[in-house]
Amino acid sequence: xxxxxxxxxxxxxxxxxxxxxxxxxxxxxxxxxxxxxxxxxxxxxxxxxxxxxxxxxxxxxxxxxxxxxxxxxxxxxxxxxxxxxxxxxxxxxxxxxxxxxxxxxxxxxxxxxxxxxxxxxxxxxxxxxxxxxxxxxxxxxxxxxxxxxxxxxxxxxxxxxxxxxxxxxxxxxxxxxxxxxxxxxxxxxxxxxxxxxxxxxxxxxxxxxxxxxxxxxxxxxxxxxxxxxxxxxxxxxxxxxxxxxxxxx
Length: 249
What we know:
Elements: H1 2-10, H2 14-52, H3 60-68, H4 73-85, H5 88-104, H6 108-132, H7 154-169, H8 175-196, H9 202-223
Helix pairs in contact: 2-9, 4-8, 5-6, 6-7, 6-9, 7-8, 7-9
């Protein structure tokens, strides 16, 4: 049976093989294009432009000034609170708790994705900041000033990374819609607070979104944390939670 299958595959023309490959893997290829290539291409454009011109894009300053024009004491409190909630340390505590649960449940695939996506995101952010050396905006005196480099925004990367991890881990359940709705609001709130406080240019936010999106989706295509099988009657873990490189169906 296996020998006949192998002979059949060898007798295929290169065009037939390519066609069958595209048909079998079109979802992954589409996700690779939209979720990985396009975000990273946008990040590259932003990076090259800012590398050549630290002032950034023509729309950076007008957007910042427009957001700043809405300042009031209530928004001040809200922005500072959101900035504190959005710190990478807060996300690390949340992800650490989830990682412990996954460890106790022996969900190795999900745990591997969580650790790879989160740690990788931190490394990418720190490395990019040190390479780019982009200074923070100085259009007004911020009520919550920052001293580190600006590009890309750590808050933007953290928010996308956290929501993406939660979304992939809940993909097989109805919880994914709740994560998608509240996660989107969280991502927007983090971006708003950084602009409101005047500690990031809009291009810093956009770059953080794009590189974190490309990274988390790219890792998911390799580890496939959303791959699940039916739970057996005796309560054993699904087979592919213990196998990191399953065959794609």
